[in-house]
Amino acid sequence: MPQSKRQLHFNLFLAPGGHHEAGWRHKDASPHRSLDLKYYVDIVRSCEAAKLDAVFLGDGPVLANNIKYAARVRIEPFTWLSAFAAVTDRIGLIGTASTTYNAPYNLARQFASLDHLSRGRAGWNIVTTGQPEAAQNFGLPTHPVHAERYDMAHEFMDVVTKLWDSWEDDALVADAVSGVHADITKIHPIHHVGKHLRVRGPLNSPRSPQGRPVYVQAGSSDDGRVFATRYAEAIFCAQNVLSTAQDFYAEMKRRVAEHGRNPEHVKIMPGVTTYIGSTQREAECLQEELNDLTQREHSIAEMRRRTGIDLTDHDFDGPFPRELLTMEGDGAQHGRFKVLLDIIDREKPTIRKLLHKMAGARGHWNVVGTAEGVANEIQAWFENGAADGFNLMPTHLTGGFDAFFDEVLPMLRRRGLFREDYEGVTLRDHLGLPRPESQYRGAEITA
Protein backbone atom coordinates (compact mmCIF):
# COMPACT_ATOMS: atom_id res chain seq x y z
CA MET A 1 0.00 0.00 0.00
CA PRO A 2 1.68 3.28 -1.08
CA GLN A 3 2.01 5.91 1.63
CA SER A 4 0.67 9.44 1.05
CA LYS A 5 3.50 11.15 2.92
CA ARG A 6 7.06 10.21 3.72
CA GLN A 7 7.25 9.22 7.37
CA LEU A 8 9.73 7.58 9.68
CA HIS A 9 9.95 3.82 10.05
CA PHE A 10 10.92 2.13 13.30
CA ASN A 11 11.76 -1.45 14.22
CA LEU A 12 12.65 -2.74 17.65
CA PHE A 13 15.76 -4.91 17.50
CA LEU A 14 14.86 -7.45 20.14
CA ALA A 15 17.97 -8.88 21.82
CA PRO A 16 17.93 -10.82 25.11
CA GLY A 17 19.48 -8.57 27.74
CA GLY A 18 19.43 -5.49 25.53
CA HIS A 19 22.14 -4.00 23.33
CA HIS A 20 24.49 -2.48 25.86
CA GLU A 21 26.96 -5.22 26.77
CA ALA A 22 26.22 -4.61 30.45
CA GLY A 23 22.51 -3.91 29.98
CA TRP A 24 21.52 -7.25 31.47
CA ARG A 25 23.07 -6.12 34.77
CA HIS A 26 20.99 -2.93 34.97
CA LYS A 27 18.64 -2.70 37.95
CA ASP A 28 15.59 -2.59 35.66
CA ALA A 29 16.65 -5.57 33.51
CA SER A 30 15.20 -9.08 33.74
CA PRO A 31 17.97 -11.44 32.55
CA HIS A 32 16.33 -14.45 34.20
CA ARG A 33 13.39 -14.07 31.78
CA SER A 34 15.46 -14.36 28.59
CA LEU A 35 13.49 -17.48 27.54
CA ASP A 36 10.09 -16.44 28.93
CA LEU A 37 7.50 -16.22 26.14
CA LYS A 38 5.14 -13.95 28.11
CA TYR A 39 8.02 -11.52 28.68
CA TYR A 40 8.60 -11.18 24.93
CA VAL A 41 4.92 -11.17 24.06
CA ASP A 42 4.42 -8.18 26.36
CA ILE A 43 7.30 -6.36 24.63
CA VAL A 44 6.03 -7.15 21.13
CA ARG A 45 2.51 -6.06 22.01
CA SER A 46 3.89 -2.77 23.35
CA CYS A 47 5.68 -2.29 20.02
CA GLU A 48 2.42 -2.90 18.18
CA ALA A 49 0.59 -0.45 20.46
CA ALA A 50 3.30 2.10 19.60
CA LYS A 51 2.63 1.40 15.87
CA LEU A 52 6.19 0.35 15.07
CA ASP A 53 6.80 -1.23 11.69
CA ALA A 54 8.32 -4.43 13.03
CA VAL A 55 10.22 -6.32 15.67
CA PHE A 56 13.49 -7.83 14.56
CA LEU A 57 15.32 -10.92 15.85
CA GLY A 58 19.00 -11.39 15.15
CA ASP A 59 20.48 -14.89 15.08
CA GLY A 60 23.58 -16.94 14.43
CA PRO A 61 24.27 -20.69 14.38
CA VAL A 62 26.98 -20.62 17.07
CA LEU A 63 27.19 -20.05 20.80
CA ALA A 64 28.31 -16.48 21.40
CA ASN A 65 31.92 -16.46 22.57
CA ASN A 66 31.12 -13.75 25.15
CA ILE A 67 28.41 -15.79 26.87
CA LYS A 68 30.31 -15.77 30.20
CA TYR A 69 29.79 -12.02 30.62
CA ALA A 70 27.04 -11.05 28.17
CA ALA A 71 23.38 -12.00 27.76
CA ARG A 72 23.82 -13.40 24.28
CA VAL A 73 21.40 -16.30 24.37
CA ARG A 74 19.98 -16.93 20.90
CA ILE A 75 16.24 -17.33 20.46
CA GLU A 76 15.49 -19.19 17.22
CA PRO A 77 13.55 -16.72 15.04
CA PHE A 78 10.96 -18.90 13.26
CA THR A 79 9.65 -20.47 16.46
CA TRP A 80 9.44 -17.22 18.41
CA LEU A 81 8.11 -15.07 15.56
CA SER A 82 5.38 -17.64 14.91
CA ALA A 83 4.37 -17.35 18.56
CA PHE A 84 4.30 -13.55 18.23
CA ALA A 85 2.16 -13.84 15.09
CA ALA A 86 -0.51 -15.67 17.07
CA VAL A 87 -0.96 -12.85 19.61
CA THR A 88 -0.58 -9.75 17.39
CA ASP A 89 -2.35 -8.37 14.34
CA ARG A 90 -0.22 -5.71 12.62
CA ILE A 91 3.39 -5.58 13.81
CA GLY A 92 5.93 -6.85 11.26
CA LEU A 93 8.04 -9.90 12.16
CA ILE A 94 11.62 -9.88 10.84
CA GLY A 95 13.88 -12.87 11.44
CA THR A 96 17.52 -13.54 10.62
CA ALA A 97 18.54 -16.59 8.59
CA SER A 98 21.82 -17.49 6.92
CA THR A 99 22.32 -18.22 3.24
CA THR A 100 25.49 -20.16 4.13
CA TYR A 101 24.01 -22.55 6.68
CA ASN A 102 20.49 -23.20 5.40
CA ALA A 103 18.95 -25.21 2.57
CA PRO A 104 16.95 -22.86 0.33
CA TYR A 105 13.92 -25.16 0.04
CA ASN A 106 13.48 -25.48 3.80
CA LEU A 107 14.06 -21.78 4.40
CA ALA A 108 11.53 -20.90 1.68
CA ARG A 109 8.94 -23.11 3.40
CA GLN A 110 9.65 -21.58 6.81
CA PHE A 111 9.25 -17.99 5.68
CA ALA A 112 6.21 -18.81 3.56
CA SER A 113 4.64 -20.43 6.63
CA LEU A 114 5.43 -17.39 8.80
CA ASP A 115 3.93 -15.09 6.19
CA HIS A 116 0.76 -17.19 6.05
CA LEU A 117 0.52 -17.43 9.85
CA SER A 118 0.89 -13.67 10.26
CA ARG A 119 -1.27 -12.73 7.26
CA GLY A 120 1.61 -11.03 5.51
CA ARG A 121 3.96 -9.65 8.15
CA ALA A 122 7.17 -11.64 7.55
CA GLY A 123 10.58 -10.13 6.81
CA TRP A 124 13.92 -11.86 6.25
CA ASN A 125 17.17 -10.38 7.53
CA ILE A 126 19.59 -12.00 5.08
CA VAL A 127 23.05 -12.81 6.45
CA THR A 128 25.97 -14.87 5.19
CA THR A 129 27.27 -15.66 8.73
CA GLY A 130 30.60 -14.24 9.80
CA GLN A 131 31.47 -16.65 12.63
CA PRO A 132 33.96 -19.26 11.37
CA GLU A 133 33.00 -21.61 14.22
CA ALA A 134 29.67 -22.21 12.47
CA ALA A 135 31.29 -24.61 10.02
CA GLN A 136 32.02 -27.06 12.81
CA ASN A 137 28.36 -27.11 13.81
CA PHE A 138 27.39 -28.27 10.33
CA GLY A 139 30.06 -30.89 9.80
CA LEU A 140 32.06 -28.76 7.37
CA PRO A 141 35.87 -28.66 7.36
CA THR A 142 36.18 -24.90 6.85
CA HIS A 143 34.11 -21.73 6.88
CA PRO A 144 33.79 -20.14 3.41
CA VAL A 145 35.70 -16.88 3.03
CA HIS A 146 33.82 -13.58 2.77
CA ALA A 147 33.69 -13.34 -1.04
CA GLU A 148 32.67 -16.99 -1.44
CA ARG A 149 29.84 -16.59 1.08
CA TYR A 150 28.43 -13.71 -0.96
CA ASP A 151 28.80 -15.68 -4.19
CA MET A 152 26.77 -18.45 -2.55
CA ALA A 153 24.25 -15.89 -1.28
CA HIS A 154 23.49 -14.53 -4.76
CA GLU A 155 22.61 -18.01 -6.01
CA PHE A 156 20.65 -18.76 -2.84
CA MET A 157 18.54 -15.61 -3.42
CA ASP A 158 17.85 -16.61 -6.99
CA VAL A 159 16.60 -20.01 -5.82
CA VAL A 160 14.40 -18.91 -2.91
CA THR A 161 12.83 -16.12 -4.95
CA LYS A 162 11.89 -18.60 -7.66
CA LEU A 163 10.49 -20.96 -5.03
CA TRP A 164 8.28 -18.23 -3.53
CA ASP A 165 7.16 -17.35 -7.06
CA SER A 166 6.60 -20.98 -8.12
CA TRP A 167 2.91 -20.79 -7.29
CA GLU A 168 1.10 -18.04 -9.17
CA ASP A 169 -1.30 -16.04 -7.02
CA ASP A 170 -4.42 -17.75 -8.38
CA ALA A 171 -3.01 -21.29 -8.53
CA LEU A 172 -4.98 -22.31 -5.44
CA VAL A 173 -8.57 -22.86 -6.62
CA ALA A 174 -10.20 -24.84 -3.77
CA ASP A 175 -13.41 -25.33 -5.77
CA ALA A 176 -15.41 -28.03 -3.99
CA VAL A 177 -18.08 -28.07 -6.71
CA SER A 178 -15.72 -28.88 -9.58
CA GLY A 179 -13.38 -30.87 -7.40
CA VAL A 180 -10.36 -28.83 -8.52
CA HIS A 181 -8.11 -27.92 -5.64
CA ALA A 182 -5.23 -26.32 -7.58
CA ASP A 183 -4.59 -25.23 -11.16
CA ILE A 184 -1.42 -27.20 -11.89
CA THR A 185 -0.70 -25.09 -14.98
CA LYS A 186 0.08 -22.28 -12.54
CA ILE A 187 2.50 -24.24 -10.33
CA HIS A 188 6.03 -24.20 -11.71
CA PRO A 189 9.11 -26.34 -11.03
CA ILE A 190 12.14 -24.05 -11.02
CA HIS A 191 14.73 -26.57 -12.34
CA HIS A 192 17.69 -24.72 -10.85
CA VAL A 193 21.15 -26.17 -11.49
CA GLY A 194 23.94 -23.85 -10.45
CA LYS A 195 27.44 -23.62 -9.04
CA HIS A 196 26.38 -24.30 -5.44
CA LEU A 197 22.77 -25.51 -5.59
CA ARG A 198 20.49 -27.94 -7.40
CA VAL A 199 16.78 -27.45 -6.64
CA ARG A 200 13.88 -28.74 -8.71
CA GLY A 201 10.89 -27.17 -6.94
CA PRO A 202 8.14 -26.08 -6.89
CA LEU A 203 7.40 -25.10 -3.30
CA ASN A 204 4.81 -27.33 -1.64
CA SER A 205 2.57 -24.53 -0.37
CA PRO A 206 0.70 -21.70 -2.12
CA ARG A 207 2.11 -18.24 -2.58
CA SER A 208 2.02 -16.27 0.65
CA PRO A 209 0.15 -12.99 1.32
CA GLN A 210 3.16 -10.76 0.55
CA GLY A 211 4.33 -12.93 -2.35
CA ARG A 212 7.60 -13.26 -0.48
CA PRO A 213 8.97 -11.83 2.80
CA VAL A 214 10.43 -8.34 2.83
CA TYR A 215 14.14 -8.66 1.99
CA VAL A 216 16.31 -7.04 4.65
CA GLN A 217 20.11 -6.83 4.48
CA ALA A 218 22.59 -5.73 7.12
CA GLY A 219 26.11 -5.92 5.67
CA SER A 220 28.03 -2.75 4.77
CA SER A 221 31.17 -4.31 3.31
CA ASP A 222 31.83 -3.82 -0.41
CA ASP A 223 30.30 -7.24 -1.15
CA GLY A 224 27.40 -6.44 1.16
CA ARG A 225 26.64 -3.19 -0.66
CA VAL A 226 26.58 -4.94 -4.02
CA PHE A 227 24.25 -7.56 -2.57
CA ALA A 228 21.95 -4.92 -1.05
CA THR A 229 21.82 -3.02 -4.34
CA ARG A 230 20.35 -6.05 -6.06
CA TYR A 231 18.04 -7.48 -3.40
CA ALA A 232 17.44 -5.38 -0.29
CA GLU A 233 14.14 -3.68 0.43
CA ALA A 234 15.39 -2.47 3.79
CA ILE A 235 19.03 -1.98 4.79
CA PHE A 236 20.02 -2.17 8.45
CA CYS A 237 23.32 -0.35 8.92
CA ALA A 238 25.72 0.97 11.55
CA GLN A 239 26.29 4.71 11.13
CA ASN A 240 27.12 7.01 14.01
CA VAL A 241 27.83 10.42 12.43
CA LEU A 242 25.41 12.43 10.29
CA SER A 243 27.91 13.10 7.49
CA THR A 244 28.92 9.44 7.03
CA ALA A 245 25.29 8.36 7.31
CA GLN A 246 24.44 10.83 4.52
CA ASP A 247 27.24 9.45 2.37
CA PHE A 248 26.06 5.87 2.86
CA TYR A 249 22.43 6.83 2.23
CA ALA A 250 23.27 8.70 -0.99
CA GLU A 251 25.56 5.92 -2.22
CA MET A 252 23.00 3.16 -1.69
CA LYS A 253 20.12 5.12 -3.21
CA ARG A 254 22.31 5.90 -6.22
CA ARG A 255 23.42 2.28 -6.61
CA VAL A 256 19.83 1.05 -6.41
CA ALA A 257 18.72 3.53 -9.08
CA GLU A 258 21.60 2.56 -11.37
CA HIS A 259 20.56 -1.07 -10.96
CA GLY A 260 17.12 -0.14 -12.35
CA ARG A 261 15.25 -0.29 -9.05
CA ASN A 262 13.17 2.40 -7.38
CA PRO A 263 15.24 3.97 -4.53
CA GLU A 264 12.03 4.71 -2.62
CA HIS A 265 11.52 0.95 -2.35
CA VAL A 266 14.74 0.50 -0.36
CA LYS A 267 14.56 1.83 3.21
CA ILE A 268 17.84 2.80 4.88
CA MET A 269 17.54 2.16 8.63
CA PRO A 270 20.58 2.74 10.88
CA GLY A 271 20.65 1.29 14.37
CA VAL A 272 20.20 3.74 17.25
CA THR A 273 20.54 3.39 21.00
CA THR A 274 19.04 6.18 23.11
CA TYR A 275 19.78 7.38 26.63
CA ILE A 276 16.93 9.68 27.63
CA GLY A 277 16.65 11.83 30.75
CA SER A 278 14.63 14.82 31.95
CA THR A 279 17.86 16.83 31.52
CA GLN A 280 20.98 16.34 29.44
CA ARG A 281 22.95 15.53 32.57
CA GLU A 282 20.43 12.91 33.69
CA ALA A 283 20.74 11.19 30.31
CA GLU A 284 24.53 11.26 30.55
CA CYS A 285 24.33 9.73 34.02
CA LEU A 286 22.24 6.86 32.63
CA GLN A 287 24.91 6.17 30.02
CA GLU A 288 27.66 6.38 32.65
CA GLU A 289 25.70 4.05 34.92
CA LEU A 290 25.62 1.38 32.22
CA ASN A 291 29.26 1.94 31.23
CA ASP A 292 30.28 1.49 34.86
CA LEU A 293 28.72 -1.98 34.78
CA THR A 294 30.98 -3.17 31.96
CA GLN A 295 33.58 -5.79 32.83
CA ARG A 296 37.16 -5.13 31.73
CA GLU A 297 37.95 -8.74 30.84
CA HIS A 298 34.88 -8.94 28.64
CA SER A 299 35.55 -5.59 26.91
CA ILE A 300 39.14 -6.59 26.18
CA ALA A 301 38.03 -9.95 24.78
CA GLU A 302 35.47 -8.28 22.51
CA MET A 303 38.04 -5.83 21.15
CA ARG A 304 40.48 -8.69 20.60
CA ARG A 305 37.80 -10.53 18.64
CA ARG A 306 37.07 -7.49 16.50
CA THR A 307 40.62 -6.35 15.83
CA GLY A 308 43.06 -9.08 16.86
CA ILE A 309 44.68 -6.68 19.34
CA ASP A 310 45.12 -7.63 23.01
CA LEU A 311 44.78 -4.49 25.13
CA THR A 312 45.43 -6.16 28.48
CA ASP A 313 48.76 -4.46 29.16
CA HIS A 314 47.89 -1.09 27.62
CA ASP A 315 47.07 2.10 29.52
CA PHE A 316 43.27 2.36 29.42
CA ASP A 317 43.47 6.14 29.60
CA GLY A 318 45.99 6.30 26.78
CA PRO A 319 45.25 6.43 23.05
CA PHE A 320 44.09 3.36 21.18
CA PRO A 321 47.10 1.79 19.38
CA ARG A 322 45.89 2.52 15.86
CA GLU A 323 49.21 1.46 14.36
CA LEU A 324 48.53 -2.16 15.37
CA LEU A 325 45.39 -2.45 13.25
CA THR A 326 45.74 -4.33 9.98
CA MET A 327 43.47 -4.21 6.96
CA GLU A 328 44.45 -7.73 5.94
CA GLY A 329 42.39 -10.88 6.46
CA ASP A 330 38.73 -11.82 6.21
CA GLY A 331 37.72 -9.85 9.31
CA ALA A 332 38.89 -6.55 7.86
CA GLN A 333 36.30 -6.93 5.08
CA HIS A 334 33.38 -6.65 7.46
CA GLY A 335 31.46 -3.39 7.52
CA ARG A 336 31.53 -3.37 11.34
CA PHE A 337 35.35 -3.34 11.33
CA LYS A 338 35.28 -0.29 9.08
CA VAL A 339 32.83 1.45 11.43
CA LEU A 340 35.25 0.84 14.29
CA LEU A 341 38.17 2.12 12.22
CA ASP A 342 36.22 5.27 11.34
CA ILE A 343 35.51 5.97 15.03
CA ILE A 344 39.21 5.57 15.90
CA ASP A 345 40.42 7.80 13.06
CA ARG A 346 37.79 10.49 13.60
CA GLU A 347 37.62 10.71 17.40
CA LYS A 348 41.08 9.43 18.39
CA PRO A 349 39.59 8.08 21.64
CA THR A 350 41.33 6.66 24.66
CA ILE A 351 41.05 2.90 24.99
CA ARG A 352 38.51 3.32 27.80
CA LYS A 353 36.30 5.66 25.76
CA LEU A 354 36.43 3.38 22.74
CA LEU A 355 35.52 0.32 24.79
CA HIS A 356 32.58 2.21 26.32
CA LYS A 357 31.43 3.40 22.90
CA MET A 358 31.52 -0.14 21.53
CA ALA A 359 29.79 -1.47 24.66
CA GLY A 360 26.78 0.65 23.79
CA ALA A 361 25.34 -1.18 20.77
CA ARG A 362 28.60 -2.22 19.10
CA GLY A 363 29.35 0.98 17.23
CA HIS A 364 25.81 1.97 16.26
CA TRP A 365 24.57 5.53 16.78
CA ASN A 366 24.21 6.50 20.46
CA VAL A 367 21.99 9.51 21.20
CA VAL A 368 22.16 10.97 24.70
CA GLY A 369 19.77 13.72 25.78
CA THR A 370 16.26 14.80 26.64
CA ALA A 371 13.28 13.41 24.75
CA GLU A 372 13.10 16.62 22.72
CA GLY A 373 16.81 16.48 21.96
CA VAL A 374 16.55 12.87 20.80
CA ALA A 375 13.51 13.70 18.64
CA ASN A 376 15.42 16.63 17.10
CA GLU A 377 18.41 14.43 16.25
CA ILE A 378 16.23 11.77 14.63
CA GLN A 379 14.34 14.40 12.66
CA ALA A 380 17.60 15.92 11.46
CA TRP A 381 18.86 12.59 10.14
CA PHE A 382 15.50 11.84 8.51
CA GLU A 383 15.12 15.23 6.83
CA ASN A 384 18.73 15.60 5.74
CA GLY A 385 19.26 12.47 3.68
CA ALA A 386 20.72 10.13 6.29
CA ALA A 387 17.89 7.69 7.08
CA ASP A 388 14.38 6.55 6.21
CA GLY A 389 13.93 5.23 9.72
CA PHE A 390 15.77 3.46 12.50
CA ASN A 391 16.35 0.15 14.19
CA LEU A 392 15.77 0.87 17.87
CA MET A 393 18.40 -0.92 19.96
CA PRO A 394 17.42 -0.51 23.64
CA THR A 395 20.22 -0.69 26.19
CA HIS A 396 18.32 -3.15 28.37
CA LEU A 397 14.98 -4.91 28.57
CA THR A 398 12.42 -3.93 29.29
CA GLY A 399 12.97 -0.36 30.44
CA GLY A 400 15.40 0.58 27.67
CA PHE A 401 12.67 1.75 25.29
CA ASP A 402 9.98 3.09 27.65
CA ALA A 403 11.03 6.75 27.46
CA PHE A 404 11.34 6.55 23.68
CA PHE A 405 7.81 5.15 23.32
CA ASP A 406 6.27 7.43 25.95
CA GLU A 407 8.01 10.71 25.11
CA VAL A 408 9.87 10.70 21.78
CA LEU A 409 7.27 9.02 19.56
CA PRO A 410 4.48 11.45 20.62
CA MET A 411 6.73 14.37 19.70
CA LEU A 412 7.47 12.88 16.28
CA ARG A 413 3.74 12.30 15.75
CA ARG A 414 2.94 15.91 16.60
CA ARG A 415 5.49 16.93 13.99
CA GLY A 416 3.79 14.71 11.40
CA LEU A 417 6.82 12.45 11.12
CA PHE A 418 5.40 9.18 12.40
CA ARG A 419 2.10 7.40 11.94
CA GLU A 420 -0.83 7.73 14.32
CA ASP A 421 -2.05 4.29 13.27
CA TYR A 422 -1.29 1.55 10.78
CA GLU A 423 -2.60 2.27 7.28
CA GLY A 424 -2.38 -1.32 6.08
CA VAL A 425 -2.04 -4.90 7.26
CA THR A 426 1.21 -6.31 5.86
CA LEU A 427 4.81 -5.37 6.54
CA ARG A 428 5.02 -4.22 2.93
CA ASP A 429 2.10 -1.89 3.64
CA HIS A 430 3.90 -0.42 6.66
CA LEU A 431 7.09 0.19 4.66
CA GLY A 432 5.34 1.45 1.55
CA LEU A 433 6.71 -1.40 -0.56
CA PRO A 434 4.96 -2.97 -3.57
CA ARG A 435 3.90 -6.60 -3.58
CA PRO A 436 6.07 -8.40 -6.17
CA GLU A 437 4.37 -10.28 -8.95
CA SER A 438 5.33 -13.90 -9.58
CA GLN A 439 8.02 -14.11 -12.26
CA TYR A 440 6.18 -17.18 -13.60
CA ARG A 441 2.87 -15.40 -14.17
CA GLY A 442 1.54 -16.60 -17.53
CA ALA A 443 4.48 -18.95 -18.10
CA GLU A 444 3.96 -22.42 -19.50
CA ILE A 445 4.32 -25.36 -17.14
CA THR A 446 7.51 -27.43 -17.48
CA ALA A 447 7.88 -31.01 -16.36
Walk me through the topology:
Layout: E1 9-13, H1 37-49, E2 54-57, H2 77-87, E3 92-98, H3 104-117, E4 122-127, H4 134-137, H5 146-165, E5 172-175, E6 180-182, E7 192-193, E8 198-199, E9 214-217, H6 222-231, E10 234-237, H7 242-258, E11 267-276, H8 280-291, H9 296-307, H10 335-347, H11 351-359, E12 365-369, H12 371-383, E13 389-392, H13 402-414, H14 427-431
Parallel strand pairs: 1-2, 1-13, 2-3, 3-4, 4-9, 9-10, 10-11, 11-12, 11-13
Antiparallel strand pairs: 5-6, 7-8
Structure description:
The protein has a single domain (9-431), classed as TIM Barrel. Helices cover 37% and strands 13% of the residues. It contains 14 helices and 13 strands. It has helices at 37-49, 77-87, 104-117, 134-137, 146-165, 222-231, 242-258, 280-291, 296-307, 335-347, 351-359, 371-383, 402-414, 427-431, and strands spanning 9-13, 54-57, 92-98, 122-127, 172-175, 180-182, 192-193, 198-199, 214-217, 234-237, 267-276, 365-369, 389-392. It has an 8-stranded parallel β-barrel, surrounded by 7 helices. Strand 2, helix 2 and strand 3 (92-98) form a beta-alpha-beta unit. Helix 5 (146-165) runs parallel beside helix 6. The model has no long low-confidence stretch (mean pLDDT 92).
Summarize this structure briefly:
With 447 residues, the chain is α/β, with parallel strands linked by helices.
Main beta sheet, described?
Answer: 8 strands, parallel, barrel
Look at the helices and sheets and give the structural class. Answer: alpha/beta
- Alpha-carbon distance between the two ends: 36 Å
- Uncertain runs are none
The CATH class designation is: Alpha Beta
Rounded to an integer, what's the Rg over CA atoms? 22 Å
Helix/strand order:
EHEHEHEHHEEEEEHEHEHHHHEHEHH
Q: What is the helical fraction, as a range of percent?
A: 25-40%
Strand percent estimate = 5-15%
Tally of alpha and pi helices: 14
Shape: globular
CATH topology term: TIM Barrel
CATH homologous superfamily title: Luciferase-like domain
The beta-strand count equals 13
Strands of the widest sheet, in order across it, are 1-2-3-4-9-10-11-13
